[in-house]
Amino acid sequence: MSEMKKILPAILKGTALLGAAATAAYVYRKDDTQKQHSILRNFPLVGRIRYMAEHIGPELRQYLFQSNLEGTPFPRKEFEDVVKAGKYKERLIGFGSERDFSKSGYYIRNSMFPKQREELRIDNSQKINTMVYKVDEDGLITRREHREEKQVDPFYLHDEDAVIIGANTCRKPFKVKGLVGQSAMSYGALGKHAITALSKGLAIAGGTWMNTGEGGLSEYHLAGNPDIIMQIGPGLFGVRTPGGEFSWEEFKRKSEIEQVKAFELKLAQGAKIRGGHLEGAKVTEEIARIRLVEPGKTINSPNRFYEFSDYHEMFDFIERMRDVGGKPVGIKIVVGDLDSLEEMASIMKDTGMGPDFITVDGGEGGTGATYQELADAVGLPIQSALPVVDEMLKKYNVRDRVKLIASGKLITPDKIAISLAMGADLVNIARGFMISIGCIMAGKCHTNACPAGVATTDPKLQDGLVIEEKMYRVANYVISLREGLFNLAAAAGIDTPVKFERKHIVYKDEWGRVSSVGDIILTPDKVEEIRDKERAAK
C-alpha cells in the first residue's frame, strides 16, 4: 500500500499529461484538416488563441483597455452615471470633469446671476418613498453595501409649467409634470421582468410616461399603473383584425383604458428603418394574445402603414383616431427627406390638421435588432434633426399646435437640457432605462441571450432581474434626471427647465471658436440656399 501511495501521484500526473497531449493532438489534427478557417489550417492549435481573444475582445476593451470616455454606444463614464443615479441616487463627482474640452461640442451658457434654489419653480409638495444603496466598505477585493428606505423630492414641474399634449384637440389631453419619459420598448424585445420593473419604477417616480413600443400593450406595461403612450406600428399589433387590418373596435377598447394617455403612430425608428420580423417559434400563446396574431406563425410587418399613403390620408386617419379614442395622437419619425418634412408642415398649415406630438428619433437611436447599414447610415442624428423640425414647423406657423419629443442617446441631464434648448418639449430615453435595470451593454439584444435578463424572454436569464429591486433604480434614475435639469436651469439663470432656449447654449469647435446654435443649424432658409445651389449645378 505504501508503494502505491508513492507512485500514485506520478501515475495521476502522467495520466493528466497524456490526456492533455492527446487532446492537443486531436485539436491539432482537426485544425490542420478542416477547410473553413485558413488561420487554423496554417497555424493549428496556436491559431485558436486568436479566435479566443477575438471572442472576449469586447469585454477586454470595455473593462480593461478603454478609458472612461471611450466605448460605444455609450462610454464607460455615461454608463456609470446612469448606474450611480439609479442605485445610489448620487451624481456627485470629485476632482473635475473627464470631458475632453479640446473636442467640439455644445455647452450651456451660465448666468452671472444664477437662480437660488428657493427661486426655482419646483413642485416638491408630494414626497416619494424609494430605496437607495449605501456603501459600507469599498476595498480592492471586498465590497459591502446595504439598501435603505429614503424619502426624496420628486422635482415635478409646477402645474402652470406642465406640458399638455392635445390641449385644444382632444377630449382627454395628456398633462405631464416631468420632461423625461421612457421611449418605446416592446414586450418581447424586453422580458416581462424588465417591462414590469420599468412600469413600477416609472409609477413610483410619477410625472413621467412609458411607451409600449410597437409590440402591443401587455399586462406587464400596466403592472405599475404608470401613464402610458401606446405605440402602433405598421404591424398594428394589439389593434388589428384577424385578417391584419386596423380594428377600430380594438383601438376603442385600448383607448378606454385609463392608464393609456396617448397613442403614437410609428412611421420610422432611428436604428430600424425597416419592417419587423418575428420567427414563429417566438410567437408564444401569450405574445399572440397581446399582439392579436396567430401563435406559432412567423410575423413580417411592413415598413409603412397600408392605412394611408400620404399626409392628407394620414391626417384624416389621425383625426378619426382622436374622435374615436378622445386622446392625443402623435407620430414617430426619422428626419432625412427635408422636402417631405416641409410638405408635412405646409399641409398642417393649410388643413389645420396634424398630430398632437412628433417624436423625433435620431439616427443614433438603439434597437433590439437591425441591419448595420440601416443603423449606421440612414437618418440624421438628433442634434441635426431636432432643430430642423422645430424650424420647419415655425416657418409654417404650426409649432404651437404640436409638441416635440426628442430621442437619441439623451441619457444625462446635460444632453437633455441641450435638446430642450434646441426645440424639444419632452425627451424620450430607452437605453438609459435599460442600464438602470441592469443592462451591461453586452450587445446581445438580438440573440435572446442577454446576460442581465433585460432583453430576453429566457425564463432562466430573467430570474436574475429582481423586479422589487430594480424598480427603485428606475425611479431614482428619472428623479435624478429631473433634479439635474433644475440644477442646469438655475445655472443658466432660468427658474424652470421648460424655459431653455437656443440662446442658452453655444457650440465650440475643435479650434476653440464659439458659435450660436442659430449659426450652425439647418434652417429652412439654409435649406433653400442648398436647393438653389443644386439647381444652379444642374
TrEMBL record:
<dbReference type="InterPro" id="IPR013785">
    <property type="entry name" value="Aldolase_TIM"/>
</dbReference>
<feature type="domain" description="Glutamate synthase">
    <location>
        <begin position="122"/>
        <end position="494"/>
    </location>
</feature>
<dbReference type="InterPro" id="IPR002932">
    <property type="entry name" value="Glu_synthdom"/>
</dbReference>
<dbReference type="Pfam" id="PF01645">
    <property type="entry name" value="Glu_synthase"/>
</dbReference>
<dbReference type="InterPro" id="IPR024188">
    <property type="entry name" value="GltB"/>
</dbReference>
<dbReference type="InterPro" id="IPR027283">
    <property type="entry name" value="YerD"/>
</dbReference>
<protein>
    <submittedName>
        <fullName>FMN-binding glutamate synthase family protein</fullName>
    </submittedName>
</protein>
<dbReference type="GO" id="GO:0006537">
    <property type="term" value="P:glutamate biosynthetic process"/>
</dbReference>
<comment type="similarity">
    <text>Belongs to the glutamate synthase family.</text>
</comment>
<dbReference type="GO" id="GO:0015930">
    <property type="term" value="F:glutamate synthase activity"/>
</dbReference>
